Structure of CRISPR system Cms protein Csm2:
Amino acid sequence: MASDWKDALGGLIGKTPEEVARTQRQPAGQKASSGKEPPAFFSRDDYVDLADQCMQRLGRPSKNKWNRENEIKRNYGELTSSQMRNLFALVTRLYNRVTIGGEITPADIGSIKVRMVYDAGRKADVQSFLQESGLLRGLDFIGTDKGRFLRYARYMEALVAYHYYYTDKKD
């Protein structure tokens, strides 16, 4: 996680809306002004496999609990199914608006990021999930691009699905 809340918000604090919009309107695949590469799920066609691998790495194997395919169930600590659904709901609201022709604004992305940072600050397992998955960093590369946002939403949906598939606790 970033060293402080200003870093976690990607330097949005103290910038004018025009400055924020300029930094978030980069062509797909271009590096952000910070020089960081976009997360792999933006450019790879196997983002579903990336989600599967991520959720397997994050969960700790549960003893003597198996799923139908004889794979061991996993414990995600405080990263519960409810927490995953709450995070996904942030993205789903914007996804629904975008799919009927709505626009993405920097404020939309900023509000999702602020909520994710808040949840990460409350629970270390949520912080680990957002770091490992690249979801928090990925918000910096969406800008107002609908294609990148739709890829982000689909990747997040895959993460939620694999979490539910592997988890040893259904809540």
